[in-house]
Design a protein that fits this description.
Shape: extended
Radius of gyration: 33 Å
Structural class: alpha+beta
Distance between the termini: 117 Å
Number of strands: 5
Strand content: 5-15%
Number of domains: 2
Strand order of the largest sheet: 1-2-5-3-4
Largest sheet: 5 strands, mixed
Order of helices and strands: HHEEHHEHEHEH
Helix content: 55-70%
Length: 293
């Protein structure tokens, strides 16, 4: 009996550590698998964002190259056109069809055509520079906001204007114009990029769906959208030190929607705050002043 007791004890002493080790091993294996899945998902999203940026950059470069090709072709044609015009003037003078003063007037008009060609090239250069600055700004914004869901933050460029749409569910509670704490971190990231571009001015717009809303001092959706826009502007000014002279706040209410309001999904898309980075029109005004001068 004693011998059997020691035998059982020895077997238990041998097998129990093995069972514990297997459990630990399986637990560690599951944890490693979960970490791997998480890292792989983050990696895949990063790759997708990188490819999206590369595609956008390729498109801008293609447009810029196309414009440059057109300018080069016009420059190649310009000497021949000028030479033809000069020969035509000489022929007209020889034939006494026009007077010397008339020929001089035509010559000055032809010189003005050349000046206009330079002016057009300046405009094209300004447009190319604007597109380059916009692309750099978009890449910076996507870099700092890259870990956010596209449903929460969407960045796009249309006709030279950059739009940053931030969803209602991220910024505010239902019917509220008090910015949520988590949203302040997002606004801080946007502010970091904007502060590095001190010449840029922007507009903050509030947008709602078409569901009627009135509570307290708020009369309707338009009131709510204005309050939300000014709440965001105050945070950018007071917490992130963006000069108020660079910002404007506006409420659009339910009147500029991006989706139909007849579904919950559409109404969710329409409830948003939009940061509109305005084009630097002063560059073009200076070119116009130089031309008129």
């Amino acid at each position: 009996m004693i011998r059997n007791y020691f035998l059982v004890t020895a077997i238990l002493a041998y097998t129990l550590p093995s069972c514990v080790s297997n459990r630990k091993f399986n637990s560690m294996k599951q944890q490693d698998a979960a970490r791997y899945d998480s890292l792989y998902s983050t990696y895949q999203k990063g790759q997708n964002d990188l490819q999206s940026c590369r595609d956008a950059l390729t498109g801008v470069q293609g447009q810029r190259q196309s414009l440059q090709n057109q300018v080069d072709e016009l420059n190649r044609q310009l000497p021949a056109i000028k030479e033809n015009n000069t020969q035509l003037l000489k022929q007209l003078e020889t034939m006494s069809v026009i007077s010397s003063s008339q020929a001089e007037s035509i010559r000055k008009s032809l010189e003005n055509i050349g000046a206009k060609d330079v002016y057009i090239q300046d405009l094209q250069a300004a447009l190319a520079r604007r597109d380059s600055l916009n692309m750099a700004l978009v890449l910076n914004l996507k870099g700092v906001l890259g870990n956010l869901n596209d449903e929460d933050v969407n960045i796009k460029v249309e006709k030279g204007v950059i739009y940053i749409d931030i969803s209602d569910k991220m910024l505010f509670n239902t019917g509220s114009y008090v910015v949520r704490e988590r949203a302040k971190e997002v606004l801080g990231k946007v502010a970091l990029v904007l502060k590095n571009q001190p010449d840029i001015e922007f507009l903050v717009e509030g947008h709602t769906d078409n569901v009627p809303y009135a509570q307290g001092v708020l009369q309707d959706n338009w009131d709510l959208s204005v309050k939300r826009a000014t709440s965001v502007v105050r945070i950018l000014q007071n917490q992130y030190q963006i000069p108020p002279t660079r910002m404007s706040a506006a409420g659009r209410g339910e009147y500029i929607n991006v989706a139909p309001n007849d579904t919950p999904e559409g109404r969710a898309l329409n409830r948003r705050t939009r940061v509109v980075i305005l084009p630097q029109l002063d560059q073009f005004f200076k070119l116009l002043e130089r031309k008129n001068g």
